C-alpha cells in the first residue's frame, strides 16, 4: 500500500479499536494492542514500513524511560531491604531457568536461549502499577514495596539485555562514559531547563528530553548496544524531578500512549504466527510453567522471611510473575537482530501474554489484600494486621 495516509489510518484504526476493547473489558491496553496486532498480521496481512518501524522503536524507548521515571526514590529507599532481595530473585531464577531449558532441552542456540531467559525474567511494571492504582494498594507500604521490587527486576532485565548482547568495542567505552556523565548531570540540567524555559508553548523541556533520548540511543546503536538501556537509566535518575513536575510526566505519557506505543505493541503482535502457536503449544506451556515455578520459588520464600502473611505473600508472588512490556521489547529486539526466529518469537510473546493475564487474575481473584484507610501510614506489618 503506497498511500502513507491510508497506512496510518489503518494502524490508528486498530489502535482505537484496541482502546475501546480495553475500556470495555478492563484489561491493559498494551495487551489488547498486541492481540489486535496478531489479528492484523494473521488476518489482514499487514506489513510494517520504515516510518512505522521508527515510531515503534521510539515508542519502546519512551515507554522504557517512563517506566524508570515512575519509581518514587523516597519509597524505594524506604523499602530497599525488602525490594532488592525479592527483585533480584524474581529476575535471576526465571532468567537462569529459561536460559538453561531453552539451550539444553529445547535445543535453541546459545544466543537465542539467553534472549529467552531475558524475555521471561521480566515483571510488568505497567500491569502491576495499574492493579495497584485500581485497588488502592499503591498508597500502602506493601503496594509500594511490590512496585520497588518490580523496578529491581526490570533493571536486571534491561542490564542483561544491554550487557549480554552488546558488542564490546571502542565505541562501547565512549557510550559508557557519555552515559555516566549524562546520568550525573541530567537531574540538575533538567531542573534548570524546567525552571527557566518550562511551561511555555514551545515545549522546550519535552524537546530537550527527546534530544537526550535520541542522542544516547544513537550512541548505544553505534556501540552495538540497545537504546532502551540508557532510556531506562535516564528515567531512573530523573524520577525525583518527575515527582515534582507532574504536568511534564502527563504530557510525555500522552505522547507515548497516543502516538508511539500503539505502533510498538501492534507491531509486536504483527509477528506472532498463529500456526506456530498451535504447533508449539506444548513448548509455550512448558515455558509458561517454568516462568511461574521459578518466580514462585524465588519470591514466595522471601515474602515469608520478611513477615508477610500467606495471603500477602501469594499476592506479591503472583504480581511479580506478570510480564508484558520488557518481555515484548526483549523478544522484538531478538527478532529484529535475527537472534531468534519468528517461530521462537511467537513462543516467547505468547508466554509473555499469558503471564500478563493469568497471574494477575489469580492475584485479584484469590489473594488481594484488603485496604484499610490507615494502612498506608504504617509498615508492611500494618497491612498484615488488617487481614
TrEMBL record:
GO BP field: proton transmembrane transport; sodium ion transport
Membrane-spanning parts: 12-39, 51-68, 80-104, 110-133, 145-165, 171-194, 206-223, 254-274, 280-303, 315-333, 345-363
Cation/H+ exchanger transmembrane domain mapped to chain residues: 17-363
Span of the signal peptide: none
Keyword vocabulary terms for this entry: Antiport, Ion transport, Membrane, Sodium, Sodium transport, Transmembrane, Transmembrane helix, Transport
Coiled-coil positions: none
Family the entry assigns: Belongs to the monovalent cation:proton antiporter 2 (CPA2) transporter (TC 2.A.37) family.
Record's bilayer topology term: Multi-pass membrane protein
Subcellular location: Membrane
One Pfam match: Na_H_Exchanger
Name of the protein: Kef-type K+ transport system, membrane component KefB
Amino acid at each position: 500500500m503506497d498511500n502513507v495516509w491510508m497506512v496510518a489510518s489503518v494502524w490508528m484504526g486498530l489502535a482505537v479499536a484496541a482502546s475501546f476493547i480495553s475500556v470495555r473489558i478492563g484489561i491493559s491496553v498494551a495487551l489488547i494492542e498486541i492481540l489486535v496486532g496478531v489479528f492484523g498480521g494473521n488476518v489482514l496481512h499487514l506489513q510494517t514500513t520504515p516510518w512505522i518501524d521508527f515510531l515503534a522503536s521510539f515508542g519502546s524507548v519512551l515507554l522504557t524511560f517512563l517506566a524508570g521515571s515512575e519509581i518514587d526514590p523516597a519509597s524505594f529507599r524506604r523499602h530497599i531491604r525488602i525490594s532488592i532481595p525479592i527483585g533480584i530473585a524474581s529476575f535471576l531464577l526465571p532468567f537462569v531457568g529459561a536460559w538453561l531449558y531453552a539451550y539444553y532441552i529445547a535445543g535453541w542456540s546459545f544466543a537465542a536461549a539467553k534472549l529467552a531467559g531475558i524475555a521471561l525474567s521480566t515483571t510488568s511494571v505497567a500491569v502491576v502499577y495499574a492493579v495497584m492504582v485500581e485497588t488502592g494498594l499503591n498508597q500502602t507500604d506493601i503496594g509500594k514495596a511490590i512496585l520497588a521490587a518490580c523496578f529491581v527486576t526490570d533493571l536486571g532485565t534491561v542490564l542483561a539485555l544491554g550487557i549480554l548482547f552488546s558488542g564490546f568495542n571502542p565505541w562501547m567505552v565512549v557510550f559508557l562514559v557519555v552515559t555516566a556523565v549524562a546520568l550525573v548531570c541530567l537531574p540538575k540540567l533538567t531542573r534548570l531547563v524546567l525552571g527557566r524555559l518550562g511551561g511555555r508553548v514551545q515545549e522546550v523541556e519535552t524537546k530537550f528530553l527527546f534530544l537526550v533520548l535520541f542522542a544516547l540511543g544513537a550512541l548505544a546503536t553505534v556501540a552495538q548496544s540497545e537504546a532502551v538501556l540508557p532510556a531506562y537509566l535516564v528515567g531512573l535518575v530523573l524520577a525525583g524531578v518527575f515527582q515534582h513536575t507532574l504536568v511534564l510526566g502527563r504530557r510525555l505519557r500522552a505522547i507515548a500512549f497516543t502516538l508511539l506505543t500503539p505502533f510498538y505493541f501492534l507491531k509486536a503482535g504483527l509477528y506472532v504466527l498463529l500456526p506456530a502457536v498451535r504447533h508449539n503449544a506444548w513448548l509455550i506451556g512448558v515455558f509458561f510453567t517454568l516462568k511461574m515455578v521459578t518466580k514462585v520459588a524465588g519470591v514466595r520464600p522471601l515474602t515469608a522471611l520478611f513477615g508477610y502473611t500467606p495471603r500477602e505473600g501469594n499476592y506479591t508472588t503472583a504480581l511479580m510473575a506478570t510480564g508484558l512490556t520488557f518481555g515484548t521489547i526483549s523478544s522484538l529486539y531478538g527478532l529484529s537482530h535475527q537472534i531468534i526466529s519468528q517461530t521462537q518469537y511467537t513462543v516467547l510473546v505468547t508466554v509473555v501474554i499469558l503471564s500478563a493475564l493469568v497471574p494477575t487474575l489469580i492475584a485479584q481473584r484469590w489473594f488481594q489484600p484488603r485496604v484499610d484507610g490507615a494502612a498506608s501510614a504504617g509498615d508492611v506489618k500494618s497491612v498484615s494486621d488488617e487481614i
